[in-house]
Amino acid sequence: MGVSFDKVDGAIWLDFDIHHSHHAVPEAERVAKLKDPGFGRVFTDHMATVRYSQDKGWHSARIEARSNFQLDPAAAVLHYAQEIFEGLKAYVREDGGVNLFRPDANAKRFWNSATRMAMAPLPEPVFIEAVEQLVRIDRAWIPGGEGSLYLRPFMIANETFLGVKPSSEYIFGVIASPVGSYFKGGPAPVSIYASENYTRAAVGGTGAVKCGGNYAASLRAQAEAMDHGCDQVVFLDAVERKYIEELGGMNVFFVFEDGSLSTPPLGTILPGITRDSIIALAKSAGVTVREELYSLDQWRADAASGKLKEAFACGTAAVISPIGKVRTTSGEFLINGGEAGKVAMGLRKQLVDIQYGRAPDPQNWIRKVF
Ligand SMILES: *Cc1c(COP(=O)(O)O)cnc(C)c1O
């Protein structure tokens, strides 16, 4: 594609220059902000950045004060949306240490996303080091209790050029945002709207990578769901327009009366790390998990017959959200009487207990930062 990644493959490690912020938020203000941070509005004092150019490869790795980027108005990302991101969390353990959950899986997915978007892939160890260094310097920003520090690695195309081609320059960054417990008093079941007007992804497209463009394209469908009184949109496949794919930013699972689980197969959906972890947890408990196509019509029929017991959505931000109601243009149906189900809640607890270090970690998912 005209971009050489030789230098990338060479640089598997970079040392980060650490520059402490001179305008860190005073402690009292930070404590006040951590009381009820919500999601994605409060940010820590620092950020990680690494630069890429075609001739230097990845270079200038820094931990520095969080600040604005200088972007030329012709920077490629502003025109052709060459942008990818990740999302993972740091959790405070009861012993005061700090856990990351499967950061290697995020690093790998980031590499895959970069490759699909013709961007310079970032070596996985550099991704993990950037995340860890940021967590270390901003340790005081991680809420205790059921809160966590949401980490947002991202990469933008920074070449000043309006021609359409892969950029020759990139900025990789990591920012961090303290988040409260996503749901106060346990997760409330969500209502979802099956979109007939919009699809999210097609075979050969970018559905399986975490790029901002996918989200931009989903916002209208999400607005449509809200116009119909629902919390979230669920997308159907783009070919037959009948199989369930996923929500705008979460994967889905179905729970059947025989105790088995099913979830849509990989391909056009985003390969969620929560999805993968739930499959592993269920299988290790002897539960059958099928990765198979499941149609909206079948879902409606199984909910009516009682064959389907529960459905839930999953992702890093909310972990597991039970689905209480499904709305379509031809009416709506309830799942589990609109209540949160036992299987969803049990899996949620198992996963959260591992993340916070309250349960054994047989799969080696936890990486301790402290
Ligand atoms: C990030 C994301 C998910 C969930 O992935 P996790 O790794 O579990 O957080 C699901 N669907 C989409 C479209 C996403 O962008």
What does this structure look like?
- Helix 6 links the parallel strand 9 and strand 10.
- It contains nine helices and 18 strands.
- The strands form two sheets. Strands 1, 2, 3, 4, 5, 6, 7, 8 and 18 form a nine-stranded mixed β-sheet that branches. Strands 9, 10, 11, 12, 13, 14, 15, 16 and 17 form a nine-stranded mixed β-sheet that branches.
- The protein has helices at residues 6-10, 27-35, 77-80, 103-116, 124-137, 212-227, 273-284, 296-305, 342-355; strands at 17-18, 46-53, 57-65, 83-85, 88-92, 98-101, 148-157, 169-179, 190-194, 232-236, 244-247, 251-256, 261-263, 289-291, 308-315, 319-328, 331-334, 366-368.
- The chain has two domains: 3-179, Aminotransferase class 4, branched-chain amino acid transferase, N-terminal domain (D-amino Acid Aminotransferase, Chain A, domain 1), CATH 3.30.470.10; 190-355, D-amino Acid Aminotransferase, subunit A, domain 2 (D-amino Acid Aminotransferase, Chain A, domain 2).
- The protein is globular, with a radius of gyration of 21 Å.
- Helices cover 26% and strands 28% of the residues.
- The relative contact order is 0.14.
- With 370 residues, it is of the alpha+beta class.
- The two termini are 41 Å apart.
- Helix 4 (103-116) crosses helix 5.
- Residues 87, 210, 246, 249-251, 270, 272-275, 315-316 line the site of pyridoxal-5'-phosphate (PLP).
- It is an enzyme of class 2 (transferase).
- Acts on leucine, isoleucine and valine.
CATH architecture descriptor text of the largest domain: 2-Layer Sandwich
Decide which structural class fits the backbone. alpha+beta
Name the beta content range: 25-35%
Helix fraction bin:
25-40%
What is the terminal separation in angstroms?
41 Å
Q: Unreliable stretches, pLDDT < 50, 5 or more residues?
A: 1-10
Ligands in the model, by name, code or SMILES, are:
pyridoxal-5'-phosphate
**How many strands in all?**
18
Number of domains: 2
Assign an overall shape.
globular
**CATH C-level name of the largest domain:** Alpha Beta
H/E element order: HEHEEHEEEHHEEEHEEEEHEHEEEHE
Radius of gyration: 21 Å
Q: Please summarize the sheet with the most strands.
A: 9 strands, mixed
